[in-house]
Amino acid sequence: MPLETEAKARVRALVADLRPNNGDMMTALHRVQHEFGYLSKESLEVIAEQLDMFPSILYGAASFYDEFRFHPPAQTTVRWCSGPACRLRNSNGIRDAMLVTLGMEELHEQTEDGRVGMVLGQCNGCCELAPMVWLEQHGEHGPTQTPVGNMNAARAVRMARALRDGSDLDGAINA
Amino acid sequence: MPESDIALQKYDALRERADAEYAAWRNPERPRIDIAMDTSSLANGARATGIAIHRVISERNAAVDMGQVHGYGMQWIHPSVQITFPNGETVLYGPVRPEDAGRIVDEATGTWGAAADIRIGMITGTHEGVPSIRDHEFFSLEPRERRLMRNLGLTDPDNLLHYIARDGYRATARMLGRHLSEEAVRNQLNDAGLTGRGGANFPTGVKWNFLFGAAGDEHYMVCNADEGDPGAWVNRVVMEGDPHLLIEGMLIGGYATKAKVGFIYLRDEYPFSVERMERAIKEAEAAGILGDDVLGTGMEFRLRVVRGAGAYVCGEETGLLSSIQDSRGMPRVKPPFPAQRGVFNKPSNVNNVESFANVPLIIQHNSEWYREHGSDKASGTKIFSFSGDIPRVGFMEVPFATRLEDCLRVCGGIQGGQLKAIQSGGPLGSLLPPEALPKLILQPDSFSPWDAIMGGGGMVFMNDQTSVLVMTEALAAFVEEESCGRCTTCHGGNQRQTEIIRRIIDGEGRREDDPNLALIDRTVQFSNCVHGQFSPKITRNTRVHFKNDFEAALLGVDPTLTLKGMYEVYVAHQRPEEQAAAAADICPTAAIQGEPGRRRVIDEACIRCGACFDVAPEVMGKRAKAPKPGLVPLA
Ligand SMILES: Cc1cc2nc3c(=O)[nH]c(=O)nc-3n(C[C@H](O)[C@H](O)[C@H](O)COP(=O)(O)O)c2cc1C
Ligand code: FES
Questions:
Q1: What is the pLDDT of residue B632?
Q2: Among residues of chain A, what percentage have pLDDT more than 90?
Q3: How would you list the strands of the sheet with B32-36, edge to edge?
Q4: Distance in angstroms (rounded) separating the CA atoms of residues B34 and B43
Q5: What is the 3-class SS of B356-383, one letter each residue?
Q6: Gyration radius from chain A CA atoms
Q7: pLDDT surpassing 80 at residue B411
Q8: pLDDT the model gives residue B22
Q9: Which residues line ligand 1 (CB under 6 A)?
Q10: What counts of helices (H) and strands (E) characterise chain B?
Q11: Which of residues 507-566 of B touch A (CB under 8 A)?
Q12: pTM given for the model
């Protein structure tokens, strides 16, 4: 057997109990992304082998889903709620203010230094807090998600400036 | 021992343990503070509140225990807690912030009144001066006895024994023990008039007949827990509030259709639901309720959770099936229907979470009992979630045929303006005009005359301070993004639809936009799945129900001043200067320029994000832009 990178060996261990044609693809992709923050090329190769799929077919399937990433996430990702209750409270303004502050054209981009990213989020039924964003980070113990409700555009600008300038989560939330 | 007795005996043994444990929980030796833990509570800071209360208890070495429940329905008072006293009285409080921890512990330890101002009502028992929660206006449309939400506030959702003590799995035990035939189960659902809660309202029992009669003996029962409609969180309440109710519904479904394996396809946005469902499945397995020998009868039924990954069309049943089977979640042509070809190309059946949740209740009682609520067109009760421009955001369980107007009333009425629109049924659903409200009852056919659907249970109320086109754009963009890409009509048509709406919002409306949207409407309907077929509905609703707003927008006129291209931001007052300075400072594009006293907005730089209004409400103003010359009103 060829020598494996350490990462590949870790992926292999993560998906060792999963089987081909058993409805295990989503589970495999989630487990690996949970651990590493994204799906690297080599991790897809390992999963494909385990599930007896062509890597291209696996990639084709995985890339269909908005939540699977193929590049490392930013240090902090702002997930912007695109839901209806938030739209009634100027969430469009919040989105645009953050994007321009972070120097991005649109969602699903990152700042050049990889500090901040922004993605589109879906309502999860906490609309009493509208408008809201979630701040996500990927640490050693997997991803964390911090909901921040009762936003407004001014707070969004302060939050984006703080994150852009390297502030930690608390700093950004209380900016 | 006849097999029949085994199921009942196993159940009785579980029940005995459950009764003892539950009695001790309901009438604890020492007062107990239960933190409401669910997705909404967590977002509102339930963990911080729990930690603060825990700290006070340890610091004081107070004789109080802690536990958890699910929120009761009033999300606007989250984070909430309940105190259960040794006499069995349970009181609900909210919002309880970390700084209220001391008062809550005081209240629990005998200083009754310490938290009087955040006391909401009695969940159980009576106490002078404290109203019963059942008398709260928000729940006044609910039946006195809840059905689907009967365990909220009264059990720890993670505790299987609590569910059993409240009659859970009793229907299953009786069904297996007394050999209620598979057919009898399905007939009961049909007699009860149970229809699918996922939006299409197809009779559940009939679908189960198809699966039962399908070829072979490898059948699959699939639960659609994808709940993708923004503004709807009905399934979340069932899964986080009473996970075993769903498991039991699927188990009964497995029995009635000869399915031995079930999948719960759960949306990625509900990680807490995933956790609760997985834990509940493990507990049910450990208790012998799931597995290869259900309650000792030899029946096999296993359940697995498959986690989605943010694709809305995976809520469409064939898309969902594809996603379970290691592929892109693209809907396919029907037939073959899932009962012919589903998971692993074997006969399968897909039902919504809430459809399953009704099943144990029907089997445990009977179809007449079930029909006591609702109307002859839609029997039973349903959970609805309410949001938008209302003061009381939350969820409630009401009988079908409840008037929507009454729902708005108990939600505190429309806030911040007049009612402008109601969004029901998600992005493929509807934008209803205010004139519809007095005529709408919560029953699918009531929505049809308005070219609308009731849908999965999300209702969003909008006031007149935001243009309906803002909502139209949001929903059109959603449907475009979520098109799976299979049909050119759908992905291309939805791109054009969104483009046109965006251009109108930018103040660049054209006369031909209306006929072009009509053309898109006629074309996109020729898509394979309901996603494409229904996707032009939102613009159609806007063009028909909000004709005046739409035509005005085409001409560049928007009285709400919320459509980007139709207004400008200006410095209305130079004072107070601190505000004016703050506005200049917060502007993310530095569009507010000039010396103190002479500040002005550079229009080309302004992105209309509204940040300056947040910090300088007395300084900043909005005014309509002169519409583009040359536009003629539609004929
Ligand atoms: C684009 C699209 C999205 C859907 N999303 C959901 C969903 O999130 N949950 C759901 O139960 N049904 C959804 N449906 C309906 C399902 O296809 C299916 O009718 C339903 O799950 C059947 O269950 P029921 O008979 O219990 O309602 C969706 C349909 C379409 C076309
Ligand atoms: S719309 Fe943003 S949380 Fe529901």
A1: 62
A2: 94
A3: B65-69, B32-36, B81-84, B90-93, B119-124
A4: 17
A5: HHHHHHHHHCCHHHHHCCECCCCECEEE
A6: 18
A7: yes
A8: 98
A9: B 196-200, 202, 224, 226-228, 313, 315-317, 350-352, 355, 529-531
A10: 24, 19
A11: none
A12: 0.97
